[in-house]
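Translate sequence into structure tokens.
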Amino acid sequence: MKIAGHDIGDAVDGLFEEIDTRLRAEAERELIVDSAEMNAISNIAWDDGASAVTVVVHEGVPTHAMAHVVAVALQHVRQRLERYPAVRPPPSDDPSEGPMLRQALRELVLSAEAEMQIAPLDLDQQWEQEQRHAGLKDLLREPPEGWDESGSEGNKFMALQYARFASQHPAQMWEGLQGSFVEKLPAAAEHGESVLALVQLTGWGTLGGCLESLVHARNELSMSDVALIEDRRSGDLG
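Result follows.
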């Protein structure tokens, strides 16, 4: 597969063909993968009325890391086809931190499910792990004021980060970060442990497990005002 002139090998060709075939059959859309400059590592454009679903990879992602980035994005397309739950904003009065909190909640559960699905491909994800590691390390060096106050938006965000890194980051990389986390943001670390324990009970191995994990994590951090969980099978919001 080539993305904007970058040959990323054939490791995800089969996955691309599978998702493209399903999109055409189940949603009457084709699948496009492209590259562009943007804030996120990847993005999925699933616009109403469009004839295609477009996966966009940040143009700064090195070639050797693109296969993993694309594979994760394709799994998120699969999740939507299979009606995995969605994290929605409230109908009104969405705080400025709302998008940040919802994204962290999605990553804790739905990114973990995506990673589980592509684990057999054994794709190179070292670059992404190093990027996330460096970002959290910098944040923990000088956390914003008030982010360790229980109930604050920053505290909720960091609790979600703690739970995600504890469950998904390589153990040898997480060990040092965990020590800094407990030292700098002890309350956020404590809440993160509570979220982690709840999510580990229901997991992300099934659609129903993902739904329960999202709800449990959201409720543990009292985030009902910023994150509604949609069961795409029924359309119910909770």
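Note: The first strand starts at residue 2 and ends at 3.
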